Amino acid sequence: MNFEQMEYIVNVANEMSISKAAEKLFISTSGMSQSITQLENELGIKIFNRSKQGVTPTFEGKIVISKAMSLLNTIKELNTEILEHKNSNQTHLKILNAPCFTFILQETMVKFNSENKDITFELIEQNPTEIMQNFNKENYDFALIPASLEEVKKEKNIRFEHIHTGHICIAVGKKSPFYHLDYVTLSELKDSKLLMYNSSDYKKVLKLTKLNLNQVLVRSNSSSLIYKQVKESQAILFLHDFSIKKSLMVMNGDVKIIPIKEEKHFPVDFWLIYLETKNLTKVAKEFMDAFLDNF
């Protein structure tokens, strides 16, 4: 008897149907049936009585199923203990994030590390589309992403928690004609020069503002270069409302964050996502608590 066969007979007993159990485990009905028959031949007993009314365990089958359930529970408990041990001794966090989270993440990492000196970090920045494509492929502790509820619901094997609902704004420097405004309209932005961060997704913004890529003054992966251009030129940078609100350049007035009047067009939900099979580790939970306090 192998692990798969134990899973099969326990699920068939619970569902009282081979087809329902097969559907639940995402395998073919014939494959499950053949595996159970093979196990019955191996043990020299009949585990299930099959009829048009359904599937019921035989007397001998009930004994085998009971033992299989016990073994599966033991294996589950063992895996949980191993995971908890790993989590309690974790000293490295691997985080996948959209660019809008980078500033707050870096700020949180510095504060968190001052109290947890053994913790190291690996921060990987990607645009939202890449995050959704790559999250299941690598061993990330969690990801932070802007997305709609429908988009995160489509992804398999993940859990998600809502962090924030925000809006897209513009960042400008003192040379910008918009600097002294409390808000801007889409029509006012139509002739503006743009600054673009390569890892950000501007499709929705460009569509609604009717701006085009010919208006891009600088496009770069260097945040320091982008923000220097914001401060020293008249170009505008689209960004999320919280991205750099605590930064020194905003606090001292070198850069101003200005909301777009038609903000109803730009609502954005932000999410924490992590693997269903892994959950958040103890260290990851503590870091996220610190991040949300900082947020």
From TrEMBL:
GO molecular function, one term: DNA binding
PROSITE patterns: HTH_LYSR (PS50931)
Domain spans labelled HTH lysR-type: 1-58
Entry-linked SUPFAM superfamilies: Periplasmic binding protein-like II, Winged helix' DNA-binding domain
Transcription regulation recorded as keyword: yes
Gene Ontology cellular-component annotations: cytosol
UniProt keyword terms in alphabetical order: DNA-binding, Transcription, Transcription regulation
PANTHER family found in the cross-reference section: HTH-TYPE TRANSCRIPTIONAL REGULATOR YBHD, NITROGEN ASSIMILATION TRANSCRIPTIONAL ACTIVATOR-RELATED
Family, as annotated: Belongs to the LysR transcriptional regulatory family.
Name of protein: LysR family transcriptional regulator
Gene source species: Gottfriedia endophytica
